[in-house]
Amino acid sequence: MRKALRIYGEVLRLVRRLPKDTRPYYAKYARENFVNYRELDANDDTSPDELFHRAYNHSLWVLNKVYSVEESAANKLKEICSG
């Protein structure tokens, strides 16, 4: 759970790098996704590490493709997700 909270906090820091008018949308999107996966079922095929990797990849996509923010901005998120 602690790792998930660190990842969520880092995603919100990355949201602050986006244009001001898009920040509320992406902050809400991130919150909804983290809340949806807050209680993982032990029988669920989706592992927490897979979800963390997905959060990192999606964050990169938004930063690079949509808003041209440097990928290096997500280095700390990558470190948390990989560790």
How is this structure best described in words?
The longest helix is centred in the last third of the chain and has 19 residues, at 48-66. This protein is an all-alpha fold. The protein has helices at 2-15, 23-36, 48-66, 75-82. It is globular, with a radius of gyration of 13 Å. The protein has four helices and no strands. The model has no long low-confidence stretch (mean pLDDT 82). The two termini are 14 Å apart.
Strand content: under 5%
Largest sheet: none
The coarse overall form would be globular
The proportion of residues forming helix, as a percent range, comes to 55-70%
Number of helices: 4
Question: Which spans of ≥5 residues are poorly predicted at pLDDT below 50?
Answer: none
Average pLDDT over all residues: 82
Beginning-to-end CA distance, first to last residue: 14 Å
- Total strands: the figure is 0
Which structural class do you get from the secondary structure elements? Answer: mainly alpha
H and E string:
HHHH
Backbone CA Rg = 13 Å
InterPro entries: Complex1_LYR_LYRM9
Protein name: LYR motif-containing protein
Family: Belongs to the complex I LYR family. LYRM9 subfamily.
Helices and strands in order, then pairings?
Elements (H helix, E strand, L loop, with lengths): L1 H14 L7 H14 L11 H19 L8 H8 L1
Helix pairs in contact: 1-2, 1-3, 1-4, 3-4
Key attributes of the depicted protein:
single chain; 83 residues; mainly alpha; 4 helices; 66% helix
Summarize the structure in short.
InterPro entries: Complex1_LYR_LYRM9. The chain is mostly helical.
